[in-house]
TrEMBL record:
The lineage of its organism: Bacteria, Pseudomonadati, Pseudomonadota, Gammaproteobacteria, Pseudomonadales. The keyword Transcription regulation applies. Residues 1-58 form the HTH lysR-type domain. PANTHER family: HTH-TYPE TRANSCRIPTIONAL REGULATOR HDFR, TRANSCRIPTIONAL REGULATOR. Belongs to the LysR transcriptional regulatory family. InterPro entries: LTTR, LysR_HTH_N, LysR_subst-bd, WH-like_DNA-bd_sf, WH_DNA-bd_sf. The keyword Transcription applies. Keywords: DNA-binding, Transcription, Transcription regulation. Gene3D superfamilies: Periplasmic binding protein-like II, Winged helix-like DNA-binding domain superfamily/Winged helix DNA-binding domain. This is HTH lysR-type domain-containing protein. One of its GO terms (molecular function) is DNA-binding transcription factor activity.
Amino acid sequence: MNINHMKAFLEVAKSGGFQLAADRLHITQSTVSARIKVLETQLGRQLFVRKREGCELTVAGRHFHRFAYAAVRAWEQARQEVALPEELNAVVTLGVQMNHWERIAPAWVETMQERAADVGTRVVADYSENLLADLSDGLIDLAMTYIPRQQAGLACELLMEDTLVLVSTTARKVTKHWQPDYVFVDWGAEFRAAHSLAYPETRAPRLSVGLSMIGLDYILKHGGSGYFSERTVEPLLEAGRLHLIEKAPTFQRPVYLLHPKEPIDAELLDLAKGALKDVVAIDMRQERKQTQ
């Protein structure tokens, strides 16, 4: 199958229309239609239901979508690695759960450059489910996630634990009732379940975010409260910009390291893992110093 045909398919699925897809790909609508027609002929299935207001995926189209996505991603990655400059011998890709991007990714890249100047580094920031899918498809080499996936071919180990604390821009005590300024940060399924047990009377918040830094920036600008990593808010607590809410329950948020059990380059993977574990260890030591 042609990669350009699959790119057209993915763009139509994303935009919901052939003309929109054509505009984004900078080709004509007839070219997009022709590429989709070739795919449908090769697969022997209709991929889209055409409607007056646009189009939507058929059942076959939905099944094909993940294969097309993986194929296009793999092709793009292959292009990057094959085109490596002469001074680089390999590339290693780390997937980082988005809430840990700021603290972990830059330090890991710097450590890798110090230890292996001939190895290129690539970092992908995403949510845990997407990182696991990329890892399974071979698009990344190792991943930090909130999900301890037990899967054939993948090794999983506990990397670190975050303590999530409830903070507010105003000093107050904890309450089980709904607070209009509460920002819900979604730290994953385990956190959602524990949060519901701890606050059974809480109504749906006005603002929910999947990325902690967005929630933190919001309450610092507009006031409010929310659950954040203790190590992230420690400097803000010391500066008096945030206050720890008294007697509020805390939550542990484990972070796992996953990678293939049989990697293509075991030595390179060990190097990347070692650098990551050292970065995490330094980060944890800095947190303990701040709390002492």
